């Protein structure tokens, strides 16, 4: 006897997607609480990793929520190189340009670069498309690569829609980063940028350039 196939609710995927971000939010908060208490979750056997920025996790998470979704905890070992776009009109040197929380891993930096080359765009414009960088925040006319001299906790996630305050007429009211197969993930380094920044203690400039 052939049994009739059960119909799948059209709302299943919707509820699945909506619930996924809520569950990830709960897990992220739990992970943050454990890290703040000094618990190491992913160290190797017999190894205890020391992270330089333990005390900045809460503020770093708040910063990540400003521009990312699906945020998750992320550990970056000393020696890894990260990339950052910055405004050379505001930062007088590559070291100053590196003094900010928003970063990219090599593969995502390369995704932006090669997309620009394939489509005849400037890298600066492509960076805006992928990372939703408003003109009021940055001219995006330079980049810097830095090696971590200390292991760091970080927050990693994909970009979310941001809203302009109207300070720069070149900005649209809202800006959404590239989605689907073209989306990239960004990294926020707690403690880097702003007052009492730890940038000079944890980052070493290895390369830089103008855009």
Task: Describe this structure as you would to a colleague.
This protein has helices at 12-36, 57-67, 94-97, 106-119, 123-131, 199-202; strands at residues 68-76, 81-86, 102-103, 142-148, 152-159, 162-163, 174-175, 185-188, 203-210. The chain is α+β, with helices and mostly antiparallel strands and 211 residues long. The protein has one domain. The strands form three sheets. It has a four-stranded antiparallel sheet with strand order 1-5-8-3. The protein has a three-stranded antiparallel sheet with strand order 2-4-9. Strands 6-7 form a two-stranded antiparallel sheet. The chain is globular. It starts with 11 loop residues before the first helix and ends with a strand. Mean pLDDT is 86; it is low at 4-16 and 36-43.
How many domains, in number, for the residues? Answer: 1
Tell me about the largest β-sheet: 4 strands, antiparallel
- Beta-sheet strand percentage? 15-25%
Oligomer: single chain
Structural category is alpha+beta
CA-to-CA gap between the ends?
68 Å
- Share of residues in helices: 25-40%
Mean pLDDT: 86
**Widest β-sheet, arrangement of strands:** 1-5-8-3
Number of helices: 6
Unreliable stretches: 4-16, 36-43
User: Could you tell me the number of beta strands?
Assistant: 9
The coarse silhouette is globular
Note the run of SSEs as H and E. HHEEHEHHEEEEEHE
Rounded Rg: 19 Å
């Amino acid at each position: 006897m052939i049994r009739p196939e059960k119909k799948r609710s059209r709302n299943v995927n919707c509820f699945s997607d909506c619930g996924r971000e809520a569950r990830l939010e709960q897990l992220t908060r739990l992970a943050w609480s454990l890290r703040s208490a000094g618990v190491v979750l992913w160290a190797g056997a017999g190894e205890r990793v020391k992270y330089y920025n333990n005390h900045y996790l809460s503020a770093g998470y708040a910063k990540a929520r400003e521009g990312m979704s699906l945020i998750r905890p992320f550990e970056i070992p000393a020696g890894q190189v990260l990339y950052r776009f910055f405004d050379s009109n505001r930062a007088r040197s590559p070291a100053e340009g590196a003094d900010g929380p928003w970063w990219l891993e090599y593969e995502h930096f390369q995704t932006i670069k090669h997309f620009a080359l394939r489509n005849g765009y400037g890298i600066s414009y492509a960076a805006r498309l992928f990372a939703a960088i408003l003109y009021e925040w940055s001219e995006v006319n330079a980049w810097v690569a830095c090696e971590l001299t200390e292991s760091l906790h970080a927050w990693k996630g994909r970009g979310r829609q941001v809203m302009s305050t109207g300070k720069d007429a070149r900005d649209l009211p809202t800006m959404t980063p590239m989605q689907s197969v073209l989306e990239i993930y960004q990294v926020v380094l707690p403690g880097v940028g702003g007052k009492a920044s730890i940038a000079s203690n944890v980052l070493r400039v290895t390369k830089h350039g103008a855009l």
